[in-house]
Amino acid sequence: MTVVEINEGTKIDYEQNGTKLTFDDQLMINVAKYQKGFPVHVDICMDADRNLCTGVAAGLFYVAQLDIPAIKYEEQTTSENDSSDENGMRQQTPPAVIPLDMSDVTLTLWSIDQLTPATEE
Asked: How does pLDDT run across 37-94, given as a tens digit for each residue?
């Protein structure tokens, strides 16, 4: 995975386990589950109470962003497993999905120093 640090300062803690990323022991994202037939961008934000969420809204601070590449498929070749239906139309085996390579994922990190600690009640 490529990690890009946007600005100076403390970044959110994260752990990678296969295709799963866990942020601050609070939010886990299985990156492979977010992968689609097109590139996907996921914003990870923190609110004033220091709760993590995906998506952006007023009052949220960026802590990280994920850029996930589109699903890749194995090239399809004609094989003995291909057959013809009753009309003589060729039935081809669908292409196989290539598992996500985390080295193709970019994690962008933002400083969390500007975030004020949650107030305890």
From this structure: 999 999 999 988 889 999 988 888 999 999 999 999 998 766 555 566 667 666 677 7
Nearest to 41 by CA among 28, 54, 30, 23: 54
CA distances from 57 to 34, 40, 45, 54, 110 (A): 20, 18, 9, 10, 16
Type of residue found at 94: P
Q: What's the full length of the chain, in residues?
A: 121
Q: How far is CA 23 from CA 15, 89, 118, 120, in A?
A: 7, 50, 17, 22
User: Helix or strand or coil: residue 68?
Assistant: strand
In whole angstroms, what is the distance from residue 50 CA to residue 56 CA? 14
Distance CA 47, CA 114 (A): 12
The pTM score is: 0.80
